[in-house]
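Q: Protein A?
A:
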Amino acid sequence: MRRSTRLASVALATSTLAIMGCGSSEKPLTRAELTAKANAICKTVTAKLATKTIKSQQDIARIAPELAGFEQTALGELSKLVPPAGLANDWKQFVAGAETLAENTDKLGEYAKQNNLKSAGALIVSSEKTQKQMQALAKRDGIVACEQVA
């Protein structure tokens, strides 16, 4: 059960971190605009994730595809945001991390369906490393709500 709890926490964190932006912008947003959009989305994501209960490997297999679809949709919106020049590198890394986590959520669901805990464990380690990197970026860039859910 301990492994299932760990898998669940990674799946939820993956969803939360993958959804960091909304809307699209053609010109660079200001730091305040980018931060406000990301913080608002993180609060919304936290509320959505609170409706999901994952207690077992079967729950992961059932819920991960839904979360992965949600993440992919949000990732599309996230990639449309144009950060200010001073945050461009961080934002690029953050979006790449979100993409990795969205892909990992999908894989995690497949591994849970296949009862492939060995591969799931390696995926969790990869996701945790990505999450830590994204959390550091969120903290540095003032995306407080995103940092808190990491």
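Q: Protein B?
A:
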Amino acid sequence: MNFAQARAQFPVLERFAYLNAGTFGPLARATVAAMEEGQRRDLEQGRSGPDFFPQAMALRDDLRARIAALVGAEAAQVALTCSTTDGCNIVLAGLALSPEDEIVTTDEEHFGLLGPLHASGARVVVAAAEPESILAAVTPRTKLLALSQVLWTDGRVLPVAELRERSGLPVLVDGAQAVGAIPVTAAGVDFLTVSAQKWLCGPDTVGALVVREPERLRVAQPSYFAQKSFEPDGSFEPRPGAARFDSQWISPASVSGLIAALDGRPEWAFERGAEMSERCRETLAQRFEVVSAPGQGTLVSWRADGDPSATVKRLFERGVVVRDIPGRNLIRASCGWWTSEEDVERLLKALAEISADS
């Protein structure tokens, strides 16, 4: 599959320079077709029958294996969730931390991680988002490092496995801006969250959690899928592996949609995404203060001229989809393997027109 064929999967690209996969990736025709087929099956045959649940469970296991392959894990280490936040809550509840315990995080995390950290009951220690500051914040009371592999603010990549090795502490990785955008391995970390609707271009409310040692994490938020068998008082024997942490029922249509999205990824996805991110960064740097360093993730952020949210709105009116980072005076572009040179040129042209109109 060449670039033109791969890009043609996404009808939205016929209308927009779509540079916002860091929020929602574009949907491909095959993804939506798989979802529609599943919904039609439910409409015509009902969500029941002798084959319905076995087929749904087989689909879940298929997806589990595909996500595992993407991040170098075993299928038995993958739980299916609905979001990154979902995965973070599962881990933090399972660790049963106390107010005497500490979690070290950074000052550039998304609330999808920060909210669960705060709700964990542990003391949250905030360090600058660079390795030495993170390690300097560790004390004998620190029980966990909770970090994004790729920072949502500017695309910086943190060496999460190295931090685990140097600190000797378990690491919870927010993989929302990493999995599907850059090569990611679950090896060397304890918990990795996956957000499927972003860089994997999957349906809404589908995600995953990779747990290095599932049997060592308590099931604190059991769904029906947690149990292999249970007693009248609610005590249960957990399912084998990370499947015990599956957060809830996910529509088989959505599971099929994500499988289709993964099937549509070209082999050269990571290389192309990195190439276009660098192209976008270099082009923007000719006119703006770009805060994203070269050779990082696939997010490119720059200082806004004027109100960032107003600029984002005016860019959308010109057929360019980006987002602002609240409170930081930044605008962020997300460059995926589907991004073209013309998309970047359209962004720069639109920014020049807005500047001329101001």
